[in-house]
Write a structure and sequence with these properties.
Radius of gyration: 26 Å
Number of helices: 11
Number of strands: 15
Length: 379
């Protein structure tokens, strides 16, 4: 009994010693990074951070700022951010990384691996690419949010389940790098100038245009296709749709098809589920798509019966052809560039095992073929 009391006393003393030795920074001395943009500037990295300056308590902040520094390493850049802001920089709330095109072309994996491996970044942080520089995106004025980082995060969380937007976390990107073909992809963000937001100027509700600054919204419908550490090409919106249909479960989005009388019909995607069957002997993948659709709107035909829930057989065939077209388009382009975005290697290997690999090896993708089949239900 006496021995146990001594151990308890020793443990308590040890805990108090550690606690007294920990230096706690006041909230007002912390700079909370909510978005990080990384570019290459010659031999250096240019790192731009969107920072929330903490207030004196957890419920308020003292505002936000963009701070940009250059250094030979990512670690050095983060240290310089702390020095320039004279605050302790923390990335515990950083949920968005933007990689500039110069980074995407040469070392996207290296940068993300360093941030995650050294515990700077949560592996669940969203990662996107910029068609120009990442700094240009993070520092722009957005029309519907005070900070570009929050606007982009919100868009990705809302539209990441749609058919024309991809969404990828740091963990997913790093895992895909280690597949056989190292095929990867990221949302490619593009800025689009928009009208200045209106602001109320009096209690009567009158409004006027904002100042002379330019305001932007973001287009997220194109995708940067990457293999290993190299940018390969930009997939169009149609190719992005095709890739999503073939690789993801979808629960949102729209399909536009021409009706039998020339009307324009919008179909809402309630769900889309892909299933792939592999024939390793013939290098054939059959992609079976189950789509649950809802007739949402019809334009151009006054006598259209809005109470019906199904399209005609000919209209349904056109829907199937549109979906299949987009899947074939992205597959053919990636196949020509040797990027296995459908991860056919694992599928064929799982079916044919070692004998398949000995037969086809590294030459599997140029010989591969796909067939797209659709099963469409209406609600």
């Amino acid at each position: 009994m006496k021995r146990s009391v001594k151990w308890i006393a020793f443990a308590l003393a040890f805990i108090m010693l550690i606690a007294l030795g920990i230096e706690s920074k006041p909230l007002g001395e912390r700079a909370v990074i909510v978005g990080l943009a990384i570019d290459k500037a010659g031999e250096e990295y240019e790192v731009s951070a969107q920072i929330i300056i903490a207030g004196e308590n957890d419920t308020k902040s003292s505002g936000s700022m963009i701070s940009s520094v250059k250094a030979e390493t990512i670690s050095g850049a983060l240290s310089r951010l702390s020095a320039e802001t004279s605050m302790l920089v923390t990335m515990s709330h950083c949920n968005l990384i933007i990689l500039g095109m110069d980074v995407i072309k040469t070392e996207s994996y290296k940068v993300l691996d360093y941030l995650v491996r050294n515990a700077y970044l949560s592996e669940n942080a969203l990662v996107i690419a910029s068609e120009t520089t990442a700094k240009d995106v993070i520092s722009c004025k957005t029309a519907h949010s005070e900070m570009s980082s929050f606007a982009l995060q919100r868009s990705l969380m809302v539209y990441g389940e749609y058919d024309d937007t991809v969404k990828k976390t740091a963990r997913e990107f790093l895992a895909d790098y280690h597949t056989h073909n190292s095929a990867n992809w990221l949302t490619l963000v593009k800025k689009k100038e928009t009208q200045k937001p209106q602001t109320n100027t009096n209690s009567g509700g009158a409004s006027e245009q904002g100042g002379e600054e330019k305001y932007y919204v973001f287009d997220l419908s194109e995708t940067a296709i990457i293999r290993g550490e190299s940018y390969v090409f930009t997939a169009s919106r149609e190719m992005t749709v095709g890739m999503n249909f073939a690789t993801q479960k979808l629960s949102k989005g729209s399909i536009y098809v021409e009706g039998d009388k020339g009307e324009k019909i919008e179909l809402y995607i309630l769900s889309s589920k892909p299933r792939i069957r592999y024939d390793s002997d013939n290098l054939l993948a059959t992609i079976e798509l189950e789509l649950d659709l809802l007739i949402k709107e019809v334009i151009g035909e006054e006598d259209y019966d809005l109470s019906k829930v199904e399209l005609s057989e000919s209209e349904t065939k056109r829907v199937s052809a549109l979906v299949s077209r987009d899947v074939y388009a992205v597959f053919d382009e990636c196949k020509a560039r040797n990027v296995d975005v459908f991860d056919l290697y694992d599928g064929f290997y799982g079916r044919g095992r070692a004998s398949w690999r000995e037969k086809f090896g590294a030459n599997y993708l140029p010989q591969s073929k796909i067939i797209v089949k659709t099963k469409i239900k209406y609600h």
